[in-house]
Amino acid sequence: MARLTELFKIIKSLSQQEKAELVAFLSNEGKASAKCESGFNSIKSTVTCPHCHSNHYVKNGLRNSIQRFICKDCKQSFTSRTNTITEHSQKTYETWCKYLECMMNGFTVRRSAEICGINKDTAFIWRHKILDALQNMASDVKLDGIVEADETFFALSFKGNHKKSTSFVMPREAHKRGNDIHTRGLSHEQVCVPCGVNGNGLSVARISNLGKIGTKDLDFAFKNQIANDSIVCCDGATAYKEFANSRNIDLVQLKSGKSKNGNFHVQHINAYHSVLKTWITRFHGVATKYLNNYLVWNNFVNYAPETYTEKKNIFESFVFTTSKTILCKDVPLRNPVPTRLNLAA
């Protein structure tokens, strides 16, 4: 109250011209805020009620420049942000769009924070809120036609500051830079990521296990995302043969040291792995618990066939409308090693 009293005194001391300038400034700020919120409001035309998923709703007035709606079926009130990753966010639609553009360009957390005028910790949380939402899109991908499949490996990483964590206990001694893996060959120090791509620019990649891959690991990684009428082309690993037989999928396995057999080859998946490795390197390594998010990020930004503008529009529309609410405090609490066995435990 004392602050308001002081503010009123300052306003009274202003000249008529200064008061007019203040009124104009506040008016423009209000219009800018309403304009920014109109971005969220305009998106709502493609969304159903977040409570009952009905599309029978009408406008229900404004609150803080935000359009509210009321559902005719369940009678619940909601806004364009309800049950989305932007719910409870104090930032504008313009700031969110700017941040999404940073993600489309693969910018680091610090650079994105500087561009958007937000804290770097906020930028990190936003990154994973957005990528968690993008997982919904990735789960709907269906690979058909000729599918090239192969696994790649990343060093098991517990990157991050765990000194203040109350839920995480470091399972081993910290590794110094340049000494990420201490065991020769495939071992439980390496995270296995089965990947699949087809000729249409669709891709699937997911953490499955530590070390050598098995049939159950392939089932977990690819789930039902490879069509039964497709042809899988891969190397001679036994796990792929058992995987294909269990799903009645045609399989072409290349002999060791060969990358091509007639019209069948693994050149696309090899190129995919090269781009993926470069993508992960630009972030100076990725904690294993966040790796799945970086995989879908790479699949969308670097591998999807659409143009940059098309992908940007798809990205904005999907992220702002998908029903995915993640609390900030829950982002760092995910399983440190999200493998098939750990997630099933």
**Overall mean pLDDT:** 83
The CATH topology of one domain corresponds to Nucleotidyltransferase, domain 5
Spatial gap, N to C terminus: 55 Å
Computed Rg: 25 Å
Q: Count the DSSP helices.
A: 11
From N to C, what is the helix and strand string? HHEEEHHHEEEEHEHEEEHHHH
Describe this structure in words.
Strands 4, 5, 6, 7, 8 and 9 form a 6-stranded mixed beta sheet that branches. A hairpin with a 5-residue loop joins β2 and β3. The chain has 345 residues and is α+β, with helices and mostly antiparallel strands. The N and C termini lie far apart (55 Å). The chain contains 11 helices and 11 strands. Mean pLDDT is 83; it is low at 29-37. It has a domain at 137-162 and 185-344: Nucleotidyltransferase, domain 5 (2-Layer Sandwich), CATH 3.30.420. α3 crosses α10 (308-321).
Overview in brief:
By secondary structure, this protein is an alpha+beta fold. The protein has helices at about 1-10, 15-45, 95-105, 110-115, 120-140, 215-220, 240-245, 265-280, 290-305, 310-320, 340-345; strands at about 55-65, 65-70, 75-80, 145-155, 190-200, 205, 210, 230-235, 250-255, 260, 265.
Essential attributes:
345 residues; alpha+beta; six-stranded mixed beta sheet
